[in-house]
């Protein structure tokens, strides 16, 4: 037995190991497991380095690292240490192997399932991970039974609890990865998933193991109080997680903060003990320095997490946490892995003391430089510095990891040879080939970068008989409201491919006229656009509203064809029919937008979730138009309350571009609550309706002309305190309608010039002519009207009635008992109010915008009055 | 493309040369040298390794480099590659990177021979491994050129 229980748990590690056999079974098992770990690490590193090329790469890199490498390592080592600390007989190695294989196969399934967007596979993989961990926890529990139990037996409690944490974390992760959850509560599940896995599954075993490993690595006796402290820290961290994780899941911020604080106290207590140990003997080896630095990053990470959570809404926490990930993933977890493996690999892989020293020597190679480079990298990533500095930081950390991986791979290969031949051989023998391999890999990396790989694939221009000019790939940068190059000249017939990279912090896309378009690209993302053979001049532009106008366009010009421009003029260009067909019928299954306004709810706090989504809506008989909406309808839902009511509106951005929201009914600083949120983000907007009126709400993101013009508006009705009961209430939001591809040049030009294709009530041209509003004779009917614009107001009139009551912009202009009457409610863009009419007798009363251009172009409807 | 024409043969020779050179290095370092280390006495090993290295070096200089350069230039001319197009993203830039990497690998291989001759074994081994890994990169770039 080369890895007897006392070998690693012993406080004095330098003891020679008598009678170590060179090819013992545990050694071979460790060898295999660590080959797997090193492969996972290498894949994670490669993915992280090339992450801008794949959409799920960021996720993939993190999970290759945590689910692949770290989880495998924790499973191997917690079992190893549990045996040592419990003085238990080792469990059946076959079952251990089965668990490891099950874990790794399942991890591959999860990663593949998410990468190729195959939720079933991800779900099956999740179940596999959970099953493997249940087996692992069961094995740890079984080890405890009937074992002698060493002094440090309580540490095994960390491992068991960690296993339970991973079961919870994996289930939450599975819900996220398979999309089983939908959008509801996603933020809470994500936060709970991150915390239970990082602080539970990864954090607990590391902290627990350090009680034993830290003094061992330093080569000093354990502190006398280690065991009681370990017990208390386990209680604190365990309780903290038990409080924080469910609280995060339920979105309860302060209990989560409290739980995290308890966890932090536990970590702080353990760190204080570790610090006392260091005071007795300073770290000397690479392993001890890395473990020390890693523990510091853990403290920094937990404290920063606590601070963020205490000062931010949970819904705003996610982006902030991303800034912390480098600290926890690289500084803490990665560095702990490096430090622990540097110390432990020689222990478990060596065939004897000489061999062990040689392995340790090999793994220690250049540790000072690696330590400094790694931690400097983490620091650069952690500090709020401009993006290029962060990239340098990442490069430094990645280089340090790559160097360790090379050394670990060499140690594994060397140890394998040792296991086969029993030969020792100095570590120096491996340095030359290792250095050579490093130089070779560096050369390849430089060559790939120079070749523009792997940012995009290249064309086979040298293929059979095609000249190199047959296919042309051009790099296109989106940056600073410009597309560069702004002009590309190609020979006629050239097959053009655009390698589009967004170098801007804002999201952009690129659309080629009559051709393909890229998805919305975040910062650093790229997309290869196959434009195909070019026969005539083409334009390409960013479709985000306002960006083309600001200069984000490029010309693809055909050389040697003077009339190319004329040819390219698309006769059928933008799908924006001029004028609507008044004789058209609504399509089958069309339903009018209900204008009925229900009374305000009794509750004084109104919680509303509004999702910014794009939707195809029938905006006029037989005409479908892509709209940008709040909640899938244009206008968005009407909110109604009383003076003093609180509205808590959660805006969720399910669209591809940024959106925000502006409620005229409340007064708040435009900076924070009205800020634009990116795709996938949430924003809670809370306002108190201090004043009565019919108010507009709309998207607050520039260009507002386009965001409102494309449908992002709605009404908030705050009842005046003395509002009399009416027999019926309707709400009508009037607006202009612009057809065409949202954000396209043609549509935006019409908006700018105020040439809408129609004027509409509640988003549909003539919809209440097709589906009249109902009333009975002698009934008092109240019509709330809000003018959403974006540019025109309204002269609201109902043919055949006189308004005896007019309330406009917070004031009663006419009341029923006044002698005067009103014929029109006139509203400028964004104004609102109501009118009341009593219909004298049965009949069809037309409601119109009395600007007859608008009435004839959609702004008309019927009130059908029955006896 | 139908049938076998002159250009097929040129391309065949180009690929065959690369296969022989990269494959030769791999076979030497993965099969022959480890076996030599294990099975031969120190003295015999020294002589064998030296002789194998010299022969491989001779083949490289006398046959491989001229054939690769000649067929490579011909293929590039046939594909319409110009100096200008080498700088363009896509095919041109990949080809340029491949040429530079190939040149670097040849320099490394030459330096290996020199270091071996001077008895600087560690340096020679490092350079040999670097040349081998680098030549794999050349193959990778060549695959990227003809693929997609």
From TrEMBL, chain A:
Cu cation binds at residues 659, 664, 698-699, 707, 712, 850. Its cofactor is Cu(+); Cu(2+). Its EC number is 1.7.2.1. Residues 616-721 form the Plastocyanin-like domain. The chain crosses the membrane at residues 31-50, 56-77, 98-116, 122-143, 155-178, 198-220, 232-250, 256-275, 287-304, 324-346, 367-385, 391-413, 434-453. It holds the Pfam family Cupredoxin_1. CDD domains: CuRO_1_CuNIR. InterPro entries: Cu-oxidase-like_N (IPR011707), Cu-oxidase_fam (IPR045087), Cupredoxin (IPR008972), EfeO_Cupredoxin (IPR028096), NO2-reductase_Cu (IPR001287). Keywords: Copper, Membrane, Metal-binding, Oxidoreductase, Repeat, Transmembrane, Transmembrane helix. It catalyses: nitric oxide + Fe(III)-[cytochrome c] + H2O = Fe(II)-[cytochrome c] + nitrite + 2 H(+). GO terms for molecular function: copper ion binding; nitrite reductase (NO-forming) activity. It comes from the Bacteria. Residues 1-25, 560-601 are annotated as: Disordered. Residues 466-534 form the EfeO-type cupredoxin-like domain. Belongs to the multicopper oxidase family. Homotrimer. This is Copper-containing nitrite reductase. It comes from Nocardiopsis mwathae.
UniProtKB/TrEMBL annotation, chain B:
Keywords: Membrane, Transmembrane, Transmembrane helix. It comes from the Bacteria. The chain crosses the membrane at residues 12-35, 56-79, 91-111, 123-145. The keyword Transmembrane applies. This is Putative membrane protein. It comes from Nocardiopsis mwathae. The lineage of its organism: Bacteria, Bacillati, Actinomycetota, Actinomycetes, Streptosporangiales.
């Amino acid at each position: 037995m080369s890895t007897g229980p006392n070998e690693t748990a012993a406080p004095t590690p330098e003891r020679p190991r008598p009678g170590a056999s060179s090819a013992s079974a545990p050694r071979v098992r460790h060898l295999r497991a660590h080959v797997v770990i090193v492969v996972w690490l290498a894949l994670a590193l490669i993915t992280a380095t090339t992450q801008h090329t794949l959409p799920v790469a960021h996720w993939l890199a993190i999970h290759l690292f945590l689910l692949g490498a770290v989880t495998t390592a924790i499973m191997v080592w917690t079992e190893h240490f549990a045996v040592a600390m419990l003085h238990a007989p080792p469990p059946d190695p076959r079952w251990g192997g089965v668990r490891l294989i099950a874990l790794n196969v399942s991890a591959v399934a999860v990663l593949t399932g998410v990468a190729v967007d195959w939720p079933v596979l991800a779900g099956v993989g999740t179940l596999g991970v959970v099953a493997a961990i249940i087996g692992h926890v069961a094995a740890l529990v079984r080890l405890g039974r009937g074992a002698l139990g060493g002094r440090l037996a309580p540490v095994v409690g960390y491992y068991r609890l960690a296993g339970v944490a991973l079961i919870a974390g994996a289930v939450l992760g599975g819900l996220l990865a398979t999309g089983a959850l939908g959008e509801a509560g996603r933020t809470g599940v994500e936060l709970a998933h991150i915390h239970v896995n990082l602080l539970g599954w990864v954090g607990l075993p590391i902290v627990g193991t350090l009680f034993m490993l830290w003094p061992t690595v330093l080569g000093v006796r354990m502190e006398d109080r280690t065991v009681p402290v370990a017990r208390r820290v386990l209680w604190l961290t365990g309780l903290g997680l038990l409080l924080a994780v469910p609280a995060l899941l339920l979105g309860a911020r302060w209990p989560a903060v409290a739980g995290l604080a308890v966890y932090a106290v536990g970590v702080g207590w353990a760190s204080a003990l570790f610090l006392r140990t260091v005071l007795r003997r300073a770290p000397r080896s690479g392993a001890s320095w890395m473990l020390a630095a890693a523990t510091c990053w853990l403290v920094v990470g937990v404290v920063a997490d606590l601070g963020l959570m205490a000062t931010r809404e949970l819904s705003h926490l996610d982006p902030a946490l991303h800034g912390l990930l480098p600290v926890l993933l690289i500084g803490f977890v990665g560095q702990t892995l490096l430090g622990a493996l540097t110390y432990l690999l020689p222990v478990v892989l060596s065939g004897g003391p000489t061999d062990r020293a040689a392995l340790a020597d090999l793994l220690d190679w250049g540790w000072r430089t690696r330590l400094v480079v790694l931690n400097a990298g983490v620091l650069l990533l952690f500090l709020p510095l401009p993006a290029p500095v962060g990239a340098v930081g990442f490069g430094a950390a990645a280089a340090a990891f790559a160097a360790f991986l090379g050394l670990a791979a060499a140690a594994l290969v060397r140890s394998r040879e040792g296991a086969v031949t029993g030969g020792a051989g100095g570590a120096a023998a491996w340095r030359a080939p290792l250095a050579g391999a490093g130089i070779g890999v560096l050369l390849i990396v430089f060559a790939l970068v120079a070749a523009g790989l792997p940012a995009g694939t290249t064309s086979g221009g040298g293929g059979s008989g095609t000249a190199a000019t047959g296919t042309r790939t051009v790099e296109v940068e989106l940056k600073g409201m410009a597309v560069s190059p702004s002009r590309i000249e190609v020979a006629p017939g050239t097959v053009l491919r655009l390698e589009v990279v967004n170098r801007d912090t804002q999201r952009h896309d690129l659309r080629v006229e009559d051709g393909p378009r890229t998805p919305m690209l975040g910062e650093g993302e790229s997309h290869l656009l196959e434009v195909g053979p070019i026969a005539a001049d083409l334009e390409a532009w960013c479709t985000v509203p306002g960006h083309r106008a600001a200069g984000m366009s490029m010309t693809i010009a055909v050389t040697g064809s003077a009339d190319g421009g004329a040819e390219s003029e698309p006769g059928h260009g933008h799908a924006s029919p001029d004028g609507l067909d008044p004789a058209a019928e609504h399509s089958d299954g069309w339903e009018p937008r209900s204008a009925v306004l229900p009374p305000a709810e009794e509750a004084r706090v109104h919680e509303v979730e509004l999702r910014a989504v794009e939707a195809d809506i029938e905006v006029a008989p037989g005409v479908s138009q892509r709209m940008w909406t709040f909640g899938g309808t244009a206008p968005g839902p009407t909110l109604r309350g009383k003076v003093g009511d609180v509205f808590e509106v959660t805006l969720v951005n399910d669209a591809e571009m940024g959106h925000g929201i502006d409620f005229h009914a409340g007064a708040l600083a435009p900076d924070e609550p009205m800020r634009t949120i990116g795709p996938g983000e949430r924003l809670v907007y809370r306002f108190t309706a201090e004043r009565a009126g019919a108010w507009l709400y709309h998207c607050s993101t520039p260009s507002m002309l386009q965001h409102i013009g494309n449908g992002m508006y709605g009404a908030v009705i705050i009842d005046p305190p003395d509002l009399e009961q009416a027999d019926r209430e309707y709400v009508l939001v009037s607006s202009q309608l612009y057809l065409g591809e949202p954000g396209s040049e043609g549509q935006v030009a019409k908006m700018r010039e105020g040439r809408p294709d129609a004027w509409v009530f509640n988003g549909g041209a003539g919809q209440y002519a097709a589906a009249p509003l109902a009333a009975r004779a002698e009934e008092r009917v109240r019509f709330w009207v809000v003018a959403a614009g974006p540019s025109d107001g309204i002269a609201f009139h109902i043919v055949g009635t006189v308004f005896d009551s007019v309330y406009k912009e917070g004031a009663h202009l006419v009341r029923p008992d006044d002698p005067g009457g009103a014929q029109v409610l006139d509203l400028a863009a964004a104004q609102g109010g109501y009118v009341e009419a009593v219909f004298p007798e049965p009949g069809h009363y037309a409601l119109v915008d009395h600007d007859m251009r608008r009435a004839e172009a959609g702004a008309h409807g019927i009130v059908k009055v029955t006896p | 493309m139908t049938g076998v024409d002159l250009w097929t043969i040129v391309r065949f020779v180009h690929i065959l040369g690369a296969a022989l050179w990269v494959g030769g290095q791999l076979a030497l370092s993965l099969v022959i040298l480890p076996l030599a280390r294990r099975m031969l006495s120190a003295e015999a090993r020294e002589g064998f390794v030296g002789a194998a290295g010299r022969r491989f070096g001779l083949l490289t200089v006398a046959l491989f480099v001229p054939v690769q350069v000649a067929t490579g230039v011909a293929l590039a001319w046939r594909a319409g590659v110009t100096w200008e197009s080498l700088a363009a993203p896509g095919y041109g830039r990949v080809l340029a990177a491949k040429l530079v990497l190939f040149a670097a690998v040849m320099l490394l291989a030459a330096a290996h021979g020199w270091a071996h001759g001077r008895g600087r074994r560690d340096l020679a081994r490092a350079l040999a491994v670097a040349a081998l890994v680098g030549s794999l990169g050349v193959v990778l770039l060549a695959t990227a050129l003809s693929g997609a």
